[in-house]
Amino acid sequence: MGFFKSIYKFINRLISGSIKNRIILIFSLLIVCSIGFVGLFSYNKSSEILTDEVVKNTSNLVEQTSTNINAYFEDIKFTVVYIATNQITADRIKNFSINSWPNKFDEQKRELELVSGILRVKSNIFDILVVSNAGLKENALNQLINPQYDFFKQKWLTDALPENSHEIKFISLHPQDYYAVSEYDSMDEGAETVSAVIMMDPSNIQGNTAFVMCDFELKNINSLIQSLKLQNGGIVSVLDDKGKIIFSSEDSLLGKDIDSSDYNLIFNNNLGSVFKNTEKGSELVIYSTIKSSGWKVSATIPMSNIYSKSNKIREITFRTASVCIVLVILLSILISTGITKPLHRLIEYMKNAEAGKLDIKVIRTGYGEVAVLERQFRGMLERINTLIKDVYQTRLKQRDAEFDALQSQINPHFLYNTLQMIKAEAVINDDKKVSQMITSLGYLLRYVVYNKNEMVSLQDEVEYIKNYLYIFGQRFEERIEFKLTVEDDILKCKIPKLILQPMIENAITHGLIESCETGNINLDIKYINNNCDVQIEIYDNGRGIEEKRLQQIISELNIRSDESSIGLKNVQERIKLKFGEAYGISIESKIGEYTCIKICIPAVKNTGRSDSFA
Fold this sequence. Notes:
By secondary structure, the chain is an alpha+beta fold. The protein has helices at about 1-15, 20-85, 85-95, 100-120, 155-160, 220-225, 260-265, 305-355, 370-410, 410-430, 430-450, 460-475, 500-510, 545-555, 570-580, and strands at about 125-130, 135-140, 170-175, 190-200, 210-215, 235-240, 245-250, 270-280, 280-290, 295-300, 455, 480-485, 495, 520-530, 535-540, 585-590, 595-600, 605.
């Protein structure tokens, strides 16, 4: 994690650094990504081509091997059928129990000559056996068969015996334990073989049950399998119909069963290839069917052996890409230096100008866009020098004008004192109404002129509104009634100065001024959102706002503008700039009934000194 964080920080420094570093980084990244993509594509494509080539070549080899073994099996099938349908064999079985001993000997001799002759010319056959349920057990090998051995009780035989005389079955590896082996015989007691068996037609042998069985000479098939050398270190095997390995180029696999999952993959099709995962890694299995028996010839090749050639291609690609990347980085450094050198010189000019040296002479060093920048910067310096002279002269004239304006200004303090004098005269003349109006006007003047704070307490703002409404009420013969609903604690909260007066003024001028009836203005101030925010609601029962105009006003409130304003828009922008987009003004209105403006601001407590003007 720390390594990637360090790389991220390094790249971030490069990106946020100079143009030169960014050019180097971007140029290098583009080339590296391009080379990486091409290299990865080439590696994947080469691996795919190599895999396809191996699959193709191995499939041809496996199919050819399957064809050769099938020819081997077909030859044995022909031999078995020939013996089973030969009249000599039928006569021998038919007359085995009823002929006299001389005739028996005669028939036995002819039978042995038949099978022995075949055995001499068929090197692919180990032995030929003729067995009947009447006790006949003869073979071409002239090897004594155990008289006590009951073929018809052997599971390996009974499971494989065909149901009719026209069908030939191939029996997988089974023990050759039916010979009567003595200490002088060369027979291996644990020997196993593969056989082909056919039932004889009962109608030709007087209803007896008999079969002819040929035992394979396994050396021939083993030699064929062992001679197959796969280029990628694969293993060739022959599987019976139950998935048992009966021949293999790897002796340790003989007699073992393949996994059920592999069995389903291989035995579902006659020819094909599948990928499987083992503890040793991925393997490619290519298989073909021996048509005469339904058994399979399979070749298993480790994928690591297939990828060994593509790994060499990957290594060459990686080395080539590394050299290209180094050359690209060097080239990008040279190019970026040529581009940024004039920019660095221009930056030096700008630093001198920033330090106040505006009389520097900008010499052209770059080309293209950089030359345009230099020309524009040179022109800018000339204009700045001209403007400095103009501004200096303008300021001298402005000082004179300000001094003249200052002399003509009326001091606000003088206005306030004058109002106090008029109030005193009203009191002397017992004119309480005029006195109160002057007092309210004086409060408004003091609040606006002397209170320079941007944030004021709600108490001060409400007091200002009371005086403001008092003066308005005198103007409209007290046709405006004002109701304030607020908790004492909330009056300590801070709000932006003069945000309520525009709301009240809008309510009077646009809602109540044209009405002949008494107008109501309700000011409701309360906490919301668990005392985190303050909501100020200004309600009037005036004429309301048409829906189209209301939507226009709401839309204008939410559009920022550089134009100055003292109404709703000004208040909206002040609140959002001060507290964020979550706060501001919302408006509800119904034509002919009411208008309600809600102001939402955060609850800012007044913990400092009091700025009250009450």
